[in-house]
């Protein structure tokens, strides 16, 4: 059973829905841009600078899209936790995650203390996994 009120859960679910819609739009846009770039380059021969710039832009788009897809997976996992009643419970210490933290980061898996420990143990991780 969650320590969060129905109103808080509703607000958090709404935040997840809004972020999901935003991410889906970004992923769709990135896929369309990649398809447009491929079709626009058919038969075009560029110099080495053009080719390097295109590869760099493609790589950046790929990383951004991968990050967005990863966040979409985290959103779906948060919804599953809401449905099974484990949402808002730290996966490490099993204590409630503060509502303030969840409002700032609705996909959070850990309380602030455990998240700090996790980041110390996993320093190469660039993005807060929750």
UniProtKB/TrEMBL annotation:
Q: Which domain of life is it from?
A: Bacteria
SUPFAM superfamilies in UniProt: DnaK suppressor protein DksA, alpha-hairpin domain, Glucocorticoid receptor-like (DNA-binding domain)
Q: Ranges for the Zinc finger DksA/TraR C4-type domain?
A: 85-120
Record GO terms (molecular function): zinc ion binding
Enumerate the UniProt keywords alphabetically. Metal-binding, Zinc, Zinc-finger
Which residues, by range, are in coiled-coil regions?
none
The cross-references to Pfam families, in alphabetical order and at most eight, read: zf-dskA_traR (PF01258)
Mapped zinc finger ranges (dksA C4-type)? 90-114
Q: Where is this region: Disordered?
A: 20-53
Q: What is this protein called?
A: TraR/DksA family transcriptional regulator
The top of its lineage is: Bacteria, Pseudomonadati, Pseudomonadota, Betaproteobacteria, Burkholderiales
